[in-house]
Every structure is written in structure tokens, then in C-alpha cells.
Specification:
The complex is a heterodimer. Chain A is mostly helical. Chain A is 68% helix and 6% strand. A two-stranded antiparallel sheet of chain B has the order 1-2. Chain B has a two-stranded antiparallel sheet with strand order 3-4. Classes of the chains: A mainly alpha, B mainly alpha. Chain B: Belongs to the cytochrome ubiquinol oxidase subunit 2 family.
Chain lengths: 472, 334
Amino acid sequence: MTFGMTAEILARIQFAFTVSFHFIFPAFSIGTASFLAVLNGLWLWKRDPAYLKLFEYWKTIFAVTFGMGVVSGIVMSYQFGTNWSVFSDRAGAVIGPLMGYEVLTAFFLEAGFLGIALFGRRRVGDTLHMVAVAMVAIGTLVSATWITSANSWMHTPAGYGIDANGIFYPEDWWAIIFNPSFPYRLTHTVLAAFLTTAFAVGAVGAWHLLKDSTNRQARIMFSMAMWMAAIVTPMQILVGDMHGLNTLEHQPAKIAAMEGHYESHEDGAPLILFGIPDDEAEETKYAIEIPKLGSLILTHEWDGAIEGLKAFPKEDRPPALIPFFTFRIMVGLGLLMLGMGMWSLWARYHKTLYTNRWLLRAALPMGGSGFVAVLAGWYTTEVGRQPYTVYGLLRTADSLSPVAAPAVGASLLAFVIVYFLVFGAGVFYLFRLFRRPPLEIEDMELEKGPTRAAGLVPGPAQEETLGGPNAH
Amino acid sequence: MPIDLPTIWAGIIAFAVLAYVILDGFDLGVGILFPLFPHRRDRDIITNSIAPVWDGNETWLVLGGGGLMAVFPVVYATVLPALYMPIIAMLLGLIFRGVAFEFRHRTQRGSVWWDVGFWAGSTVAGFTQGIALGALVQGIDVADRSYVGGWWDWLTPFSLLTGLAVVVGYGLLGATWINLKTSGELQAHARRIAMFAGAGTLVLIGVVSLWTPFVRGIYFERWFGWPTAFFSAFVPALLGVCALGLWHGLITDKHLQPFLAALGLFVLSFVGLGISFYPYIVPGALTIAEAAAPDSSLQFLLVGAVILIPTILAYTGYAYWVFRGKIDPEEGYH
């Protein structure tokens, strides 16, 4: 079961596969947790039942997503040891405590208060329930902070020493946590999570507005999502640019791969819009270029110098093909998001936000854009870090466990089968939840507060049909 | 026994693993017992009893793993490759167990399949955790900070026995938990199951205990050599007390006592292991002192652990308090 590959390649595929599956859930639940906290706060402040209905609606979706994030995350916390034991042994003393803090400050907080946030409103009352919902939201953000710090350290290591056995030891925790790429990466990641949620919520809202443009809950969610898109997308593009400049400073080879530059340019690099980077031939074939624009974007000068991949020894270069394409996918989606946000402002100004059917139809395919962009960005940065796990210091090839290829291949196959089965079903159920109109709670129940956590009550299971008014 | 940073951390990691075993133990136990509760209504009630807390319980496993990587990196880097297959199987089991909570409510036709997944995932997770324990007790081959043993070293009659023991023990925890959280016919049913599971657990603890001293010489020394025998004699004595408490609680229809007694069995077995392992963290391969990360790593994380672990215990306890008492089948809080 090696599929003709080495243990190293199989382990890399396994990591990429499991982390990709894992990443999409937190990317959504970070934004959704904050969204829920805002909705619950609005309900307590304005006492408008529409907000409570929206809270209950998205709460169920959040519960499903969060559960999938938890179980796929546990896999990650053990995979460093099973497949990358040398990396764990050498870098564990530095990045292990960061992940340890993630567990102590974030995971327990989320898990501890999740039960109360989902099922405890009547038992603890509005105030403590709001605290629980806020704690879950804060937990997701704190979690993002620690894990991004650990990942950033692998890209831009700082504050460490290396002993005679090649083992990293900490010298300055402040420098380790706030390593050079961390502030940019964290901001970029969290904004990405908020955008992912915004476009997913926007698509669900648009779907229900297309069916019934008077549905008040659908209007509120679509409006909130489009505000987020209009305000956060420009911020994200700005932060992305700063993050790129930081990468140019610390990981120039990654930038060269992303841009498809094999040759160095002393007096202004072109922007390659499209091409096929070929590492063997050391050139980007079929390139369509815009002169000087590459330097303008990266150095903010027409004639800024950009190093090409040929400036680095062959064995130190990242493969160019994947980062080149994933980077373009991410940027392309970012521009589409920007367009969507601006269009929504235009529609809002003309009072047609809820009735402009072309806008609503366009919002549907954009529902998944955040997920694709997040993964594309993740591949760009991680493949661009190759051939290293700790940039410039520890090679991926030297990080591997003493595992035999058949064992890695067999476990990879098991993960692929189980993930597609389990998370495929999960996504199917999520879409089923998305299709329910956000009108679930009967007004009778609102008077005494909601009693039902949809789908989590003893009683008849949900009907297979499109949910009727009593489906939970 | 020196009280230095590595020893303190070994204690914290041991605490995290124990917290995981007793907390997620009853969650997994509920899943292991699923086939014995064929009615959907009963299954809804018993899953509702653990739904608000299982996620927090499972987080102790992440703390155990993440903590090991941070403070004993070489242990993390040798034990996990040594236990490659059981660990992967455990992770896959936990995936099925974790999603089943939500998924079984999302479908009518597929619901029974998620029930099967819930049972199989819980059972596989418990069994592989027991296998991992047995394999660790046997010791693993380490040279030059790497695992150098074979792919199947973990698979022995002894580790299969410890795997079975943990499954049955978790079943006992699950049954006493259901006995605590339910009423009426469902509780009576759980009480009957707990009697069988209790008998099975005690027998298996006995068999494993008789076998262990012969697995490695050092355990024999610890258990029967002086002065350590003085301390190790306490463990079986207290185990007897817990066994009596369990039996008495079940025949007199107490609600909380059997659960606490079952927890006691696990805590004492764990303490017995600790006495046997010390000063090794990986028996026969790595001592606590030589496996520890640099002091600056231990100090940095200890500051957080000292403040945060009591805080975590406080709000986790609060969450248990919020959802205390018998599950009311009519109340739809989950």
C-alpha cells in the first residue's frame, strides 16, 4: 500500500490531507462563534425575536461544524508524533509549549462552555448563557492565536538556540511567540475566517431570499454578511499585501515560487498573470506578463529588485507549480469577494439589497469561496516553505519518523476513506440544515424561552424530506 | 524522589491522562454499552446525558498529547511511532464517536448507522487505549532518541488483555454513569449491566495484576521488594475497599456511590502503574529526568498550567453542576 511512493511523500500527503480537512472546520467555526455571540448579544439588547431565531438557527449548524473540527483536530495533535517524530523531538521544546497553551487557554474554554452555550440557556439564565457563548467565541480566537504562532515560528524561527544534537531549545519566549511573520499571519488568518463565515452565511441568506424576499431572518443574515464582506475584504487585501512584503523579507524563495520567477530581476520584475512553472527547465512556460507590475506590488517601486529561484541552490528551492497556482486562486477569489462587497453596497444604496436577484444568485456560488481561498492560501504558504519544516534549519526529509512506507500508506488510505465518509456525510447534513428556512421557533415557545436544541432532543428524528416547520 | 521541574511535569501529565481516562472513560463506556440499550428513546437519553460534557472530557487527551510534545518531546517522538497502528485506530474510532452525537439526529434512515458508528468508535478507542497501555507496560525499544522496534511489537497477548480490561472497565464506568443519570426501568437495566461489568472489571484487574510483575523484572522488585512493597500493598487493599463500595452501592440501589467506586478502581489502578513506572516515563527506555525538555520550556508552560488547570477544573465542574441531576426525558435541553 505504498502506491509507488516513499514514506516521506506519503507522510506529507497524509499531513496535507488531514490538515486541509481539519482547517475548513475552524475556518468556519471561528467566524460562526463570533457571529453567534453578536446575535445573542443583539437578542438580549433589543429583545427582537428575529435575533433569537437566527441564533438558534446557526447554533445547530455551529454544533455540527464544531464537532467535526474537534475530532479532526485530535488527529492533528497526534500526527506530529506518529509521522514526524524527529521534528517533534527537535522542535517540541519550542513549539510544544505554544500548542500546550492552546489547549490550556482555548480548547478547554471552548469545550467547557460549549454545553452551556448550546443547551443551557434555560438552566443558567440569560446572563450566564451570554458569558458561555462569549467564552466559546473567545476560545476560538485564542486558539487561532496560539496555533498561528506555532506555525509562524516554523516559517520565521526566532528566539531559539540549537544544541549539539540538533535539538532546538528556547532562549526568548517573547521572540518565539511574536516571531517576525506572526502578526501578519494571525491577522490574515482571522480575517480569512471571518470572511469564510460571512460568505457562507451570505449564501444561505441569499438562498432563502430568492425563495421569499420578505423573510426577515434571511434579510438580517444576508445584510450582516454583506456588511462583513464590504468592510473586511478591503482590509484583508491590505493585510495580505503586508504579509507578502514580510514573506519577501524572510522567505524570498517562497515569493519567487509564488510569482513563477526563476530569473532574478535587478530593475523591475514583471507580473506573470498566467503560466506553467517548470522546475526542471527552470522557466515558467506560456507566461503572460505585465512588465514592472511584479516589482510594484512586491516592493512598491517600479524598478525594485526581485530574486528569482535560480538565486537559490536547487536543493533549497520550493516547488513552484503549486504555490504559483494556489496563490492566483486565492487572489482571484479575494478580488471576487471585493466585487461582491462593493456590489452589495451599491444595491444597499439603491434599496435593492434583498430583491436584486442577480446579486442574490451571485452570492450562492460565493458561499464556498472563503473555504477555497483559505485552503489555497494555506497551500501557498506551506508548500512555499519546502524543503523545510523549520525554515532554513530543519529539512522536511530529516523530520520524518522512522516509519515504513506501507504503514504510512495504509493509514493514509484509512484516513481518506473515513474522512470522505464521515465528513462527506457531515457536509451533506449541513446543506440540509442550510435549506431549512430560518423560522424554526414557534412564537409560543419564545414566551418561555427556547426549550429545544434542534436535533438534540429525545424524540422523533428529522424527516428525510425538506424540513417542515416542525423538523429539528 | 526529587521535586524538580521534570518530576512536577510528569505528575501533571499523569494527572491529565488520569483525568482523561476517568472522564472520557464513562463517555466511551456509554458508547461501548450501546447495543445493550436497543430502544431509540433510551439511546437518546443516555447520549443526552454525556452530550454537554464529552467534548471537555476528550480535551484532556489533547492536553496529554500536546503536553508530552512540549515537556517530554522525546517520549512523544518515540511512543507514538511505537504505537503507530493502535494510535491511528484510536483516532479513527474517536472520529466516529465524536460526530455520531450530532449526526444520529440529522437523519432517520441513517440514524442506526451512526449508532453503530458510535458503538464501534467508542469500543475501538477504548480497546486501543488499553493496548497502548499494555504495550507501554511491556516497554518499547528506544535507541538514540528514536523508536527502533518493529511494527507489530505492540501486539502481544498481554496488550490484548489490557485492551479488553480497559473496554470492560469503561463499560463499568458507563453503566454506573447511566445508573447515576437516569431513573426508572432504564436505571434498573444499567444497574444490572454494572453488576456484570463490575465483576468482569475486578477479574481482569486481578489477572493483569498477576501478570504484570512477570512482564518486567523491575515491576516484581517494586511490588515485592522492600521498602516499596509497603506502599504497593496499599493499592490492592484500597482496591478491595472500592470493590466493596461498588457491590454495596449496586445492591442497595445507590445512585452516586457505584460511580464513585468505579472511578476509585481506575484511580487506584493508575496509581499502581505510577508506582511501577517510576522513575521511568517509558519503562526500560527513558527516565523522567532524561526525557525532559529544557528547563525554560518546563517553566514557561508551568506558569500557565499552575494558573489554568485549577481554572479549567473550576469551570468544568461548573458545567457538570449546571447539568447535574437526573436526565428528564421530557426536557429537551439535549
